[in-house]
Amino acid sequence: MIVWLNGTHGAGKTTTSRLLQPLLPGSQVLDAEKVGEVLMDIKPGLPTTDNFQHWDPWRPLVVETARRVHDYIGGGPLIMPMTVLVEAYWREIQAGLAAYDIPVRHLVLHVDGPTLVDRIQNDRDLGPSTFRFAYVDAYAEAAAGWLHREAEVIDTTSVPAAEVARQIADAVRADD
Fold first, then answer.
1. 161-175 and 13-20 helices, crossing angle to 10°
2. What global pTM score does this model have?
3. For the chain, how far is it from start to end, CA to CA, in angstroms?
4. Which fold has domain 2-175?
5. Which residues of 49-81 are buried (b: 16+ CB within 10 A; e: fewer)?
6. C-alpha–C-alpha distance, residues 99 and 117, integer Å
7. 58-73 and 33-40 helices cross at what angle (nearest 10)?
8. What does the pLDDT read at residue 124?
9. What pLDDT, on the 0 to 100 scale, is given for residue 16?
């Protein structure tokens, strides 16, 4: 199984995935952003874009990387923290994984607007991030449309990441 942690930048995906991994025996964390970083390193460079997800190779490479890692670790879930706000991109990833018969538990870590802005502004590791702020409205639009209908939504506004991780682990174990 793949446990996909979606949600906007600053919702707690990376932190939650780090806390979730020890709670799910045999699990591994794969950040699909690393696939994008590989594409960003191509020289002299792919066409200019504001987000590597717009590059056509990114989505099938995420699917193929996830499939290969999932098969390699054999057994435990693969935890993937990655924001995907474009419905067509999510459908492509989801269909690719389904073609390999890999079940996906799609969860959205949601945080209310004021709390999100505060988290981005006061992030101790990254500091204020123009990139993260640029996706606040895109997340709100996706959340009001397809995203919250498509996934299990966990409100992280006032819940510590450790508790969110425990909730997810309990739900995933209950499905086994």
1. 60
2. 0.94
3. 10
4. Rossmann fold (3.40.50)
5. eebbbebeebbebbbebbbeebeeeeeebbbbb
6. 38
7. 130
8. 77
9. 97
| For the chain, domain boundaries | 2-175
Name residue, tokens 């699990």.
Answer: 27
Mean pLDDT of 125-142: 87
Buried b / exposed e along 130-152 (16+ C-beta atoms within 10 A) = eebeebbeebeebbeebbeebbe
Q: Is the pLDDT of residue 19 over 80?
A: yes
Amino acid occupying residue 41: D
Q: Which residue has the tokens 């502004």?
A: 121
